[in-house]
Amino acid sequence: MNLVHPEQGTELPALAVRVTREQLVRYAGASLDFNPIHWNERFAKEVGLPDVIAHGMLTMALGGRLLSDWLGDPGRIAEYGVRFTRPVVVPDDDEGTLVEFTGKVAEVRDDGTARVDITARSGGKTVLGKAQAVVRLS
Fold first, then answer.
1. Rounded to an integer, what distance in angstroms lies between the CA atom of residue 70 and that of residue 53?
2. pLDDT tens digits for 41-55?
């Protein structure tokens, strides 16, 4: 794959990540987001969630990793945005939950950038909506 001149329709190498409760604890410490929906099963269920859920920004960051792995340089990501459409439910076991990311070059622009559309799925369902990035091709 030629990263300097990808064509419209070029697919990025897929990324599959297992998200565990341990990762949620680490992310909470790094982000200072200690909302109990991310670690307390009883609280999460009391507020109507099926179980503890991953931080939305963690899920978004993993989508960013799909891009940076492909580009080889996170500094080439010029814009990146998502909508949080469905929570990533993380069971209390050693395996966690699988989140799968794919991406496709949707548009190559004359200014040396490209728009990449990202799909993130967990449990067979899309968890990020309108996940799009603009990347610098060189």
1. 27
2. 999 999 999 999 999
- Give residue 35's identity as a one-letter amino acid code: N
Which residue, 95, 86, 79, is CA-closest to 120? 86
Q: Which two tokens stand for residue 87?
A: 């929570």
For helices 56-71 and 21-31, give the axis angle rounded to 10 degrees.
90
CATH at residue 75: 3.10.129.10
Q: Flag whether the pTM goes above 0.90.
A: yes
Residue 59 lies in a domain: yes
Residues in the chain: 138
Asked whether residue 4 is domain-assigned, the answer is no
User: Are the C-beta atoms of 60 and 120 separated by less than 8 Å?
Assistant: no
Question: How far apart (Å, rounded) are the C-alpha atoms in residues 57 and 131?
Answer: 12
Q: Is residue 41 part of a domain?
A: yes
Model confidence pLDDT, tens digit, residues 57-108? 999 999 999 999 999 999 999 999 999 999 999 999 999 999 999 999 999 9
Domain containing 40: what range?
A: 15-136
